[in-house]
Design a protein that fits this description.
The structure holds two protein chains of two kinds.
Chain A: E1 2-8, E2 12-17, H1 22-28, E3 47-52, E4 55-57, H2 65-69, E5 72-74, E6 78-80, E7 84-87, E8 108-110, E9 127-133, H3 145-157, E10 163-165, H4 167-179, E11 183-191, E12 194-202, E13 210-216, E14 220-227, E15 232-240, H5 250-257, H6 262-285, E16 292-299, H7 301-308, H8 313-316, E17 330-331, E18 344-347, H9 357-365, E19 375-379, E20 383-389, E21 394-400, E22 420-426, E23 433-437, E24 445-446, H10 448-460, E25 479-482, E26 485-491, E27 502-505, H11 506-529, E28 539-543, E29 549-551, H12 552-557, E30 569-573, H13 575-585, H14 587-599, E31 601-602, H15 610-618, H16 630-638
Parallel strand pairs in A: 1-7, 10-12, 13-16, 16-18, 19-28, 21-31, 22-24, 28-30
Antiparallel strand pairs in A: 1-2, 3-5, 3-7, 4-6, 8-29, 9-11, 11-12, 13-14, 14-15, 17-18, 19-20, 20-21, 22-23, 25-26, 26-27
Helix pairs in contact in A: 9-13, 9-14, 11-15, 13-14
Chain B: E1 16-19, E2 26-29, E3 48-54, H1 63-66, H2 76-85, E4 91-95, H3 108-121, E5 126-129, H4 134-147, E6 154-158, H5 163-173, E7 176-180, H6 185-197, E8 205-208, H7 218-234, E9 245-247, H8 249-252, H9 256-259, H10 269-287, E10 291-294, H11 297-311
Parallel strand pairs in B: 3-4, 3-10, 4-5, 5-6, 6-7, 7-8, 9-10
Antiparallel strand pairs in B: 1-2
Helix pairs in contact in B: 2-3, 3-4, 4-5, 7-10, 10-11
The chains are: A alpha/beta, B alpha/beta.
The structure holds FE2/S2 (inorganic) cluster (FES).
Amino acid sequence: MKHKVTFCPDDKQVEVEEGENLLRAAMAAEVHISASCGGDGTCGKCRVIVEKGVVEQRPTSKLTTEEIEQGYVLACLSTIKSDLEVRVPPESRLGKFIEREKAPASHILSAKGWEEHLSSWQRRPPIQKYYIEMPAPNLSDNVDDLKRIKRELGKEHGLEAEVDVDLSVLKYMARVIREADWRVTVTLLENNSSVKIIKVESGDTAKENYAAAIDIGTTTIGARLIDLKERTAVAQASNYNAQASCGEDVISRMIFSTKRDGLIKLQSLVASTISELLMKLADKAGIKFSDTSCLVLAGNTIMTHLFLGLSPKYIREAPYIPTASDFPWIKAKDCGLDVFGETYACCFPCVASYVGGDIVAGVLASGVSRSKKLTLYIDIGTNGEIVLGNTDWMVACSCSAGPAFEGGGVKHGMRAAKGAIEQVRIDCGTCEPMILTIGQTKPAGICGSGLIDALAEMFLSRIVDQRGKINVELNSPRVREGKHGPEYVLAWADETANGEDIVVTEVDIDNLIRAKAAIFAGISILLESTSVDISDVEEILIAGAFGNYLEIERVQTIGLLPEYPFEKVKFVGNGSLIGASLGSLSKEMLLEAKEVASKMAYLELSADNKFMDKYISALFLPHTNVELFPMVMKELKNR
Amino acid sequence: MAFQAPIDTYQGKIREVIMGGESNQITVGGEIAMPFHFFEGEMSRKPVIAMEVYDVAPDNWSSAVAKPFRDVLSDPVVWAKKCQDEFGADMICLRLVSTDPNGENRDPAEAAETVKAVLEAISVPLCVYGSGNIEKDGEVLKKVAEVTEGQRVILGPSQEDNYKPITAAAIGYKHNVSGLSPIDVNMAKQLNILMTQLGLEADRLVMDPSGAALGYGLEYVYSIMERLRLAALQQNDEMTQMPILCDFGREVWKAKEAKTEDEPSWGDPEKRGILWEFMTAASMLIAGGDVLVMRHPEAVKLTKKFIEELMS
Ligand code: FES
């Protein structure tokens, strides 16, 4: 159910779902309330008065009984239960209250609920489990064990296809079926037209059939455990790719792979991160990790090569050729995932050296490849990959953005995990911030969406200039000269998780501007080369693992995206991970992935010097050609 | 049918920047077509030449270029006057090399005294360039701006890392600013945006897209200037419509072709240097230069003649 929340004296309204947090509602309504603990309930600054309506509150010692009687609540500890009228008292305001042109509520995009819209593939997982009860053999029914199993599969489950088997299964099968008194569960891998027995277990375990979907990012690896029987995700986890110790981006990883034992080391590092994640998932979901019968992975071409132990050497050298773009099903243990002996794994097919399976997975998952609408799909990662097209044609390009949006190369950057600052507002006059963290706990760092917000707000409140330089002459304790140059304090030490000031430095800002410039330049060239004007694009989809929310205004404020109608932008979340999850549920989708990968055309950005030119003109807030951003410039003036 | 050469039309116009005090103003800019394309549109103003003067005697000038100034090198006031009276300089570009912290490290007030003295002695407009040291230039030019208030001096070079104090000084004391960017269209434009955002009027700005000499990157600067001009005229891009200042005199006389003396097979060193500077100047004119900062009087003379010929 939706509720209307009105904030006075700003007279701003926002409609939210029942159960939404009151501080988040204020954020969405562009009402700026002091909040320096990220919504943890410990700073006691987000005091508001509920004048009409009902909120549910968590208890707090920050308010006196008297105040509570007067209707005071802490916004961050209040859940919305009805239509509300809320007064923001002067002490809770970020700055002086200035009557100004009413800004509309912001467009906060949430990745939640996205998956329900996904176009439907036949949901038949590539991995199936069948429980069978076989008659014990005797002198007149004396077919061998394997034939007996196949016969039963045909009889009880109507399986007619030619069934193959792994030698490793044959080795233990005879013992297992006898010990289980001829009642076993058979796991089959259905690939294209062939079917193969990959596991035989005693008793009925058909219900315990899980797959893990994995997004192998250059910086972050995301994993999700899928219950194949119930067809739902049951657990999710992510961690930094341990390969990062061998280089930040794909280029340095490729160089490392050519060193002695470099390839082996890289493969074992990524395998170790994935193993840990898989165990964490099993733990979270309370299953045996041997019940994870398949892995579906999506990663860029280089990450896929390194996972499979293929040398990316020739990808780096002109004419940039990968060993393969399409990969067979393999045993996970062949890639160094030793614990997962019987687990099978498959990687999404890639397009070209720098457009990989992560993009193919995302384009499929978000429906671009089946849509009639001309869509711009942008995956913001260490490698920014951009696709333009629809069901009829698709062109992709890739640009190196660096890990800034995943928190890499940023002093207090972190993954989108608990405690990460994900939303930021800054008051123009006082430079005081309003911050919200993931899980509303004490801030521990800043994730991608928080960094986008922070940069946009610092720019709009003139803490940084258009070149991204911090104005140290501002009269605020939050703007100061730090150890490594000027910085802005987003959270003071006594309010953070690790007792350290959380700051955004000029170097961080530089990295963020570089990252956004690379992506903007990629978009411009892709549009130009296909003679498509941005106004002809019918939908923009943004994918990336930088948080749960993305505010499209802020994204445009920093010039990561061209100005474009907000309503037509959608935030997909981690497209690659969603694609991999869907792939684990549908072999039809995995087949379609091959088709999509082979259909996508690749545009090489380094072919001429246009990219450099566009890149430098985008190294500015919002852009050197400010006339392309009339809305942003207007907002800047208004503040 | 007779062949009709296609003619470009433009929507943009280069801004007019006024230099000098009440009594000795000159204006540059105002072009509405590409340089010397009289068939496309008017070019009512001639480009101007600012002759270089150092505030201390330069120790690394080759004798070919030092010779005409032999008697005045150690006195910037007389030197400037000589450039104006004898060599026909339209402007003087005074370089405060003495303020360089890695050199004599003169303090801003002392340097400003020199500026004041020069200004009093001449009747043409003045351009004052700092030593190029980011931090020091900010302080020095602030002081210079103060003592020359109202004289519409061009202060420079204002760069990405010190544009703030310099621009503020220009706003406070009503001067012009020359923005120096590293041979890049976008960066030139960015600097203009940054300076105007601080509140400097756009018609108090000239762009210095970096100097280069013939054989030493001239073609890069040439194409950057051409692109800036096309953006200004064709796309009516307001932030590239500033007149262009070309600071190449010192680049030319650094080139070995200009400064080498003992290479008889290369011909007369003096003539060679002069021609090197003139050829560079000619290219800069054709690329769209509005203010040329030059060194040798003979090269200045040739360039003036060249301008007359192009204009007629
Ligand atoms: S107490 Fe609510 S934000 Fe800190």
